[in-house]
């Protein structure tokens, strides 16, 4: 069975995401190590790291995962933003490593008008620079599939293929597949399309590169290129693709993490509802 979890809040301390995951009977968790909407971050204190690591060890959760800041753009043609993004991303890697996390998920970047080829080459150069500056770390960076809003790269499997084929230390990278994002990018998941989509992924990248899934339904339709998440089975993807995904033997041991809306219109907490659906289908 996959390892089900959710992206959970670090309000009040990083360890609180672990406590919340345990309360939800998760097997894994994703968190931010800092405010994702700000560049600045207070340095991690030894006491924070110790508290988090102790909570994690006691929890028996697996594959602790962080998501990096939404401000980072490793494809930017603007030199100032590019240098700032590289520095910020290196810090994200260092923070994840200090906490003993397994994975750091990142959106590849947006070319903002410079073109796909130029943007992808900027990403490769940025990752090579960060890898050089963080030799010996164990945390693995996962390139997340994107919906393709605006000029965001990562919405085509060939984008990820190019990055993975061209970085110097490809073993330090993996892939996080977001179901809402690939659907919004035009990869159908219903019926025979499920097999076609993952066959194309395997041909271009290799399914063994997938280390984590973000399980999200989509508010908008196939190929909309709009990144808007819905609860499991409550959007335009529907239940059937998720039932197939959680019983796909290729992915049986992988983290599958919710990034779905936390409450419904009546204020009901939805993580327990979405997790219960996934567990019933996987069981």
Number of strands: 12
How does the overall form come out from the CA principal axes? Answer: globular
Roughly how many Å apart are the termini? 7 Å
Corresponding CATH superfamily = Divalent-metal-dependent TIM barrel enzymes
The CATH topology corresponds to TIM Barrel
State the low-pLDDT regions, or none.
Answer: none
Strand content: 15-25%
Mean pLDDT: 98
Report the total helices: 9
**CATH class bucket:** Alpha Beta
Brief sketch in words of this structure:
This protein is an alpha/beta fold and 283 residues long. It is built from nine helices and twelve strands. Strands 1-2-3-4-6-8-9-12 form an eight-stranded parallel β-barrel.
Folded structure, characterized:
The protein has one domain (3-37, 46-282): TIM Barrel. The protein is built from nine helices and twelve strands. It has 283 residues and is α/β, with parallel strands linked by helices. It has helices at 15-23, 46-59, 79-98, 116-133, 157-166, 179-184, 192-204, 239-246, 271-282, and strands at 3-7, 28-31, 65-67, 103-106, 109-110, 140-144, 152-153, 173-178, 210-215, 217-218, 229-230, 255-258. Helix 1 (15-23) runs parallel beside helix 2 (46-59), helix 3 crosses helix 4 and helix 4 (116-133) packs across helix 5.
Which secondary structure elements does this structure contain, and how are they paired or packed?
Layout: E1 3-7, H1 15-23, E2 28-31, H2 46-59, E3 65-67, H3 79-98, E4 103-106, E5 109-110, H4 116-133, E6 140-144, E7 152-153, H5 157-166, E8 173-178, H6 179-184, H7 192-204, E9 210-215, E10 217-218, E11 229-230, H8 239-246, E12 255-258, H9 271-282
Parallel strand pairs: 1-2, 1-12, 2-3, 3-4, 4-6, 6-8, 8-9, 9-12
Antiparallel strand pairs: 5-7, 10-11
Helix pairs in contact: 1-2, 3-4, 4-5
